[in-house]
C-alpha cells in the first residue's frame, strides 16, 4: 500500500516480491489489480470445510452443494468491516430444500443443509439440487441495529448465477464469481484418506472515475415495447471478465497451488497487489447456556411435550452437539 514518509512526505511504494509458493488453506486472500480498477477476494478451504461437512455425513452431492454455499458466504462475509454476522440461506422446492451458512466476522463459520434423500438421483447438478425458490443474504450488524437483507430468486440456476443476479440488481456492481468444490483422496499407510476442498474467487469492477461506473439499471417504467440501449462495457472490465473466465476448477482447489501464484498467473501482466490473508475457522456458536435460554422462550406446555424418557434432549443442527437437560433444568414443572 502506498504511504507517506513522515519525515520527507515522499510517496513510498510497497516492495515488489515474487508470489509465495506456500499454499494457505482456510483463508480469504484480498487482492487488487489497480491498472484495471479491479478488486477481489480468493477463498481457499481445506480442513475447516472438511470439518463442517463431516459433522453430518451428507451424501456427496449435498455436501458439494453446501460447500459451494460456504465458499460464496466467505467471499461475501469476509468484506464486513465490523464484528457482525453474514447469513446466507436458501429455501427451495428442490431435493436440497434448505441451506444455512452463518459467518460471524471476522473468521467463524458454521453451516447446515436439509435434504430429501428419496429425491436425490445420480447426475443431478447444483441447479437441479436447488430447484426453484429464493436465496436470502442477511447482514446482522448488532442486536441494537436493524438487519439488512437482500433476496434473489432461484429459478433453475446455480449459486454463481444467483450471486451475479444479486450484484446486478441490488448492488449494481459489475461482479464475477467462480466457485469450485471437490473431493480429495490421498494415499497413506492406513489406506486412502478422503477430504473435502473448495475454492472461490470474486472479482469486481470498481472504477474511481464516475463516468466509467456501470449505468444504473432501468427503473422499469419505460413504455412497453421500448428497448433501452445497452451501455457498452468498459474495456478494463471486459479484460477482467476474460481473465477470470480462464480459471479452472482444479486451480481453485489444488492443495499444491498457492493462492498468490494463481493470482500472479491471472494478472501478472497488469500487476496484482495482494493483502494479508484473512483466516477462517469452523466453529459453532451454540453452548449449553444458549440452548437453555432458547428453551426458556418456549411456552410451558411446549417444554413439557419435549420431555422424553425423563429428559429434554436438544441437538444443534449446525454442529450436531447434543445437550441434555432434566425437566427441572428445562423449566418443566
Based on the coordinates given, report the CATH architecture of the largest domain: 3-Layer(bab) Sandwich
CATH topology of the largest domain: Hsp33 domain
How many β-strand runs?
A: 16
Amino-to-carboxy terminus distance: 63 Å
Indicate the overall shape: globular
Q: If helices are DSSP runs of H or I spanning 4 or more residues, what is the number of helices?
A: 9
Which CATH class of the largest domain? Answer: Alpha Beta
Structural class: alpha+beta
Beta fraction:
25-35%
**Which series of helices and strands comes N to C?**
EEEEHHEEEHEEHEEHHHEEEHHEE
How many distinct folded domains? 2
Q: Secondary-structure blueprint of this entry?
A:
Layout: E1 3-4, E2 11-12, E3 27-33, E4 38-45, H1 47-54, H2 60-77, E5 85-92, E6 96-104, E7 108-115, H3 126-130, E8 132-140, E9 148-155, H4 159-171, E10 175-186, E11 193-205, H5 235-244, H6 249-253, H7 259-267, E12 273-274, E13 278-279, E14 281-282, H8 288-296, H9 300-305, E15 312-315, E16 322-325
Amino acid at each position: 500500500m502506498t504511504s507517506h514518509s513522515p519525515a520527507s512526505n515522499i510517496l513510498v511504494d510497497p516492495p515488489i516480491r515474487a508470489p509465495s509458493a506456500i499454499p494457505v488453506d482456510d483463508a480469504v486472500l484480498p487482492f487488487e489489480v489497480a491498472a484495471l480498477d479491479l478488486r477481489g477476494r480468493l477463498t481457499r478451504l481445506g480442513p475447516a470445510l472438511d470439518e463442517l461437512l463431516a459433522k453430518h455425513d451428507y451424501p456427496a452431492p449435498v455436501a458439494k452443494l453446501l460447500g459451494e454455499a460456504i465458499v460464496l458466504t466467505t467471499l461475501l462475509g469476509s468484506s464486513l468491516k465490523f464484528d457482525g454476522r453474514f447469513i446466507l440461506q436458501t429455501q427451495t422446492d428442490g431435493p436440497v430444500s434448505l441451506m444455512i451458512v452463518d459467518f460471524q466476522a471476522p473468521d467463524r463459520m458454521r453451516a447446515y443443509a436439509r435434504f430429501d434423500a428419496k429425491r436425490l438421483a445420480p447426475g443431478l447438478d447444483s441447479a437441479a439440487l436447488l430447484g426453484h425458490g429464493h436465496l436470502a443474504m442477511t447482514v446482522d450488524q448488532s442486536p441494537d441495529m436493524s438487519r439488512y437483507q437482500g433476496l434473489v430468486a432461484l429459478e433453475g440456476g446455480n449459486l454463481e448465477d444467483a450471486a451475479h443476479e444479486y450484484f446486478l440488481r441490488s448492488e449494481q456492481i459489475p461482479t464475477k464469481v467462480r466457485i469450485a468444490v471437490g473431493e480429495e483422496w490421498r494415499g497413506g499407510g492406513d489406506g486412502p484418506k478422503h477430504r473435502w476442498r473448495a475454492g472461490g474467487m470474486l472479482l469486481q469492477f470498481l472504477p474511481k472515475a464516475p463516468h466509467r461506473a456501470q449505468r444504473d439499471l432501468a427503473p422499469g417504467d419505460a413504455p412497453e415495447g421500448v428497448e433501452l440501449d445497452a451501455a457498452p462495457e468498459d474495456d478494463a472490465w471486459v479484460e477482467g471478465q476474460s481473465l477470470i473466465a480462464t480459471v479452472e476448477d482444479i486451480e481453485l482447489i489444488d492443495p499444491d497451488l498457492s493462492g498468490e501464484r494463481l493470482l500472479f498467473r491471472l494478472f501478472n501482466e497488469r500487476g496484482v497487489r495482494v493483502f494479508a490473508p484473512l483466516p477462517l475457522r469452523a466453529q459453532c456458536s451454540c453452548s449449553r447456556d444458549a440452548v437453555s435460554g432458547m428453551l426458556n422462550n418456549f411456552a410451558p406446555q411446549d417444554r413439557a411435550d419435549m420431555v422424553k424418557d425423563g429428559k429434554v434432549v436438544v441437538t444443534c443442527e449446525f454442529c450436531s452437539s447434543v445437550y441434555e437437560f432434566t425437566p427441572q433444568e428445562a423449566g418443566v414443572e
